[in-house]
Write a structure and sequence with these properties.
The complex is a heterodimer of chains A (278) and B (261).
Chain A lengths: L10 H18 L10 H11 L6 E6 L6 H17 L3 E6 L2 H18 L7 E6 L3 H11 L1 H4 L13 H4 L7 E8 L4 H12 L3 E5 L8 H6 L4 E2 L2 H11 L8 H35 L1
Parallel strand pairs in A: 1-2, 1-4, 2-3, 4-5, 5-6
Helix pairs in contact in A: 1-11, 3-4, 3-10, 5-8, 10-11
Chain B lengths: L1 H4 L4 H24 L2 H24 L5 H4 L1 H32 L5 H23 L5 H35 L5 H16 L2 H4 L16 H10 L1 H25 L6 H4 L3
Classes of the chains: A alpha/beta (278), B mainly alpha (261).
Chain lengths: 278, 261
């Protein structure tokens, strides 16, 4: 066999195999979740679980359709946990398409778990001017900043958002994001008002969060969809066929496929080198 | 001031939008009519005032006068940032309109742009005004069926590029590339369940448990990675401060700042 050819496999074959590797777990939808749970995921769970009942969690949505595969399972599992523990939460989106996507996730869970909109949770809709909004405006006078919800209903008419006056009423910030927005929250809101933060970045961005986890500025993290599937184990859904588990399997298979290709490419490269020397 | 920024509905809302547009367009027009030698100082002065507000608000101890007007300032910033949306639309219309007029190659893509733009915009507006109309299911189809799927598809193409690039570029040419490849493999395998299962035969409490892939990847993330991330954060922080000062004081030079309006 000519090993040299291994470094020049046809691109079309690589792509078709990749599509098969990624799509198969999404169709099979295995229920098996990761056995191990990372410390940062466990810490995120504990922080949310221990949030005082009289406070409200603030779920910040920065994701859109581009990173839906990782960020939607994170949103879904965190909202589910908050509903299950009867922790109240409000959602705000900084991404236009993400507004509707996150609202749909909340609505589906609300119906599934028999919760009530306006009492157990509320969606504040979309807002631009991310940094300015976080820096003081939201923390100083919440009602002035958010007069209406996603459906243009005044916040004063709903029991949950009506009681949020300032940062003092917010028990935790959950930042679900494809980019490095955690730093903004830390600098302008969580640091000055002493509010804990749990960050949920895509896997590729998670490496940036480790210094903040180490210093204790960030309480916990769900690193990508793997973090979401580990979190599902913690809330007792470890043997359920979920989007997070299927995507985690898909990602696992894709990683192993890429490593196999790198190994094959290098075998071909070494073989070609030896041949050239001869 | 609060009344000015309070939510508006119906005709009042449209009047406010029209008023903001007229004032904004008027200001822009006025700026364009200003002699060139005066234009830059005007922009620099407004930039300086904007930066000064936020600087004072943060530097003066908490709960000062500037803190109390922050919600209004943020609302004003939202209005200004919405104008950038119009500039974006204006640009898109210009580029695609020109492509259709001149029948440039792929001009039909520009027709698709205009069709999609007007369809989803009108469906969105009608849905908001009349939620019970046929525009609501139409918007759902356009949003979930088209926009959502198209954006996800575009982003997912990265997977194919990564596979192709990793396969062709990751060659063990020297010791550095070997080190990089081993590190990448440990991280890639250690962070996914299937990868860490490869070394699950090593007992978790034994002396050799540090050889488990998830532990090795954690070691890399928590020590070498963290040191590098901290170094980058310091560098970026100092750079951001310098950049911020340059923009605030209008000292920045380059294609965006030197070209005349």
């Amino acid at each position: 066999m000519n090993l040299k050819k291994l470094q020049n496999i046809d691109k079309r074959i690589l792509y078709i195999l990749l599509a098969i590797v990624i799509v198969t777990p999404l169709f099979v939808r295995p229920s098996k979740h990761p056995d191990a749970v990372f410390d940062e995921v466990q810490n995120a769970f504990n922080t949310i679980d221990n949030m005082p009942d009289d406070k409200v969690a603030f779920v910040s949505i920065v994701w859109g359709p581009g990173t839906i595969a990782e960020n939607r399972p994170q949103t879904e599992v965190l909202m589910r946990h908050l509903f299950m523990k009867h922790k109240k939460f409000v959602v705000l989106s900084w991404d236009m398409p993400g507004t509707k996507l996150s609202y749909d996730v909340g609505k589906a869970l609300e119906e599934e778990l028999g919760m009530e909109y306006g009492k157990d949770w509320c969606h504040l809709g979309y807002r631009p001017a991310y940094v300015a909004m976080i820096s003081r405006a939201m923390g100083e006078d919440f009602q002035k900043q958010f007069a209406e919800d996603y459906n243009n209903k005044p916040l004063k008419e709903m029991p949950l958002p009506a009681k949020i006056k300032s940062a003092k009423d917010i028990g935790i910030v959950i930042d679900i994001t494809p980019s490095a927005t955690m730093g903004t929250w830390l600098a302008y809101f969580c640091g000055p008002y002493n509010v804990p933060i749990v960050t949920c970045p895509t896997a590729v961005m998670s490496a940036e969060a480790y210094p903040y986890l180490d210093s204790g500025q960030v309480s916990g993290m769900l690193n990508g969809v793997i973090g979401a599937s580990m979190y599902e184990t913690l809330i007792g859904r470890g043997n359920t066929r979920t989007e997070a588990a299927a995507t985690a399997w898909s990602l696992s298979c894709a990683h192993i496929y890429i490593i196999l290709l790198i190994v094959l490419g290098n075998i071909g490269y070494i073989a070609a080198g030896k041949k050239a020397k001869r | 001031m609060h009344t000015l920024f309070a939510p508006k509905h119906g005709v009042e809302l449209w009047l406010y939008i029209a008023g903001s547009l007229v004032i904004g367009a008027g200001l822009l027009l006025l700026l364009c009519q200003t002699p060139q030698r005066l234009r830059k100082p005007v922009i620099a002065f407004v930039t300086f005032l904007g930066g000064l507000y936020f600087t004072l608000e943060f530097l003066i101890p908490h709960d000062n006068y500037f803190t109390h007007v922050m919600p209004e300032v943020v609302n004003a910033e939202i209005v200004v940032s919405c104008f950038t949306l119009f500039i974006g639309i204006y640009n898109l219309f210009g580029v695609h309109g020109r492509a259709i007029r001149r029948k440039q190659p792929g001009w039909y893509n520009s027709v698709a742009f205009f069709a999609a733009f007007f369809l989803i915009a009108s469906a969105g507006f009608i849905k908001d005004m009349r939620p019970d109309s046929a525009a609501t299911p139409l918007f759902e189809i356009l949003f979930n069926g088209f926009m959502n799927s198209l954006q996800s598809t575009t982003f997912s193409l990265i997977a194919f590029y990564i596979v192709s690039a990793a396969y062709r570029a990751f060659r063990i040419r020297n010791s550095e590339s070997v080190l990089m490849m081993i590190t990448a493999m440990i991280i890639m395998l250690g962070l996914v369940p299937l990868g860490s299962a490869l070394t699950s035969f090593i007992p978790a409490n034994s002396f050799f448990s540090f050889l488990r892939l998830e532990k090795l990847s954690y070691f890399i993330l928590l020590l070498p990675n963290m040191a590098v991330q901290r170094a980058i954060a310091f560098g970026v922080g100092v750079g951001s401060m310098a950049m911020g000062l340059r923009i605030w004081l209008s000292l920045e030079r380059g294609s965006f700042f030197d070209e005349e309006l």
